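Following up on my earlier thread - several people asked me to post the actual chain instead of describing it. Fair enough. Here it is, all 105 residues.
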Amino acid sequence: MVGDRVVASLEIASTGRERRKGLCGRPGIEGALLLERTRSVHTFGMRFAIDVAHCDADMRVLRVTTMRPNRLGRLVWPAASVIEAEAGSMQRWGVTPGTELEIRQ
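Reply from S.P.:
Thanks for posting it. Predicted structure:
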C-alpha cells in the first residue's frame, strides 16, 4: 500500500531458495515480489526488465532502479528488503525514494 491506496498484490520470498530464484525463469509477474533480508539483486536468467525498490526495515523506499535482463544490481547497505516488479510499475504506482509502503496480508 502507498498511503491508503492498494497498488499491487504481493508475493513474499522469505526462504533462501525463494530469494535466490526470485523472478528468474518467469514470463512476467502480476503485482510484485518482496525479497526479505535482501540488499541487492541480479537479473541473470530473467526474461524481462524489472523495477527494483530497495526498502529499509520500516519499508521506506531508499532507491528505485530499472534493470534490464542479465545485469548485476548495486548493493544498498541500509536496505532490509527488495521489491521487484515489471519495469514501469514503480512509476505507475507512484513509488519513489522516501515512499513509505505498507504490506497487508
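Residues 52 and 84 are 5 Å apart (CA to CA). That should answer part of your original question.
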